[in-house]
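sorry for the late reply, my laptop died twice this morning and i had to redo everyting from scratch. anyway the thing you sent over, i finally got around to it. pasting the sequence first so we're on the same page, its 273 residues, then the predicted structure underneath. double check i copied it right bc i was rushing
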Amino acid sequence: MRWVTLFYPAAIIAFSIRSSPAAPPTAEQIARRVQDRDTGRDSRAEMRMTLFDRHGRVRERALTIVTLRGRGNPGAAKTAPDGDRLLIRFTYPADIRGTSFLVWEHPKTDDERFLFLPSLGRVRRIAGTEAQESFVGSDFTYEDIGGREFDDYSYALESGNASWTDADGAAHPAWRLESRRKDSGAAFPRVVSLILKDTYIVVQADIYNRRNEAQKVYSVRRIQQVQGIWTVFDSSMANILDKTQTHLVVEKVGYNIGLREDAFSRRELESGK
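ok and here's the structure:
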């Protein structure tokens, strides 16, 4: 099962847990609720990505993201694939246009990730050992984009009150959840996420390297509802040590648009369209 902490459309996009008011949810229940919240049967989003290097130089990119929920997820069609599907395609500028990233989630086996590079005319499979490497030169990793395996992490709630202030200045209560990678050799073995109690959206995450330094910070600036689904519209990932940053803005998004599994095939990945 997938634990989506950051960018995967299930994350940029509220489900109920069966616990009584007297029994607050556990860390594992909160993590699963983030994973299982309603994101529709499918979605399509147009986004703008802005990359800032350590010298303040800026690069702009445009991309589309389409998703399809797998069987067993809330609202998923009976004909849906066994696991979630994700396809990202860059549309601007010319030097990256057509570059595409495909994820096939498999609930009982390892997920498959494929990167199509039009300049080389070939597809490269992204191995599990590469999951925490940079995604096409951004401050996000393949794992941030394609999702984390739930069982690869252990979870703990940090004590104390926490909150997140939205763009209008309103404070929202939140949990602070630590996700610790069971493989201590991972590049980023620990993440501390701020999760809203009302919507179960991750609105901030401090990402620690093997030296236990907070190397990266994910921050959300704006969320709003689209077709009844809470969606992250403005977010960023900053690398504190490298002094770089990647900013993401959703320009258009729609849910339940009628996508089918064939929209997430290797052939579709290589079409570059």
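The chain has four helices and 16 strands.
thats about all i looked at so far, will dig more tmrw
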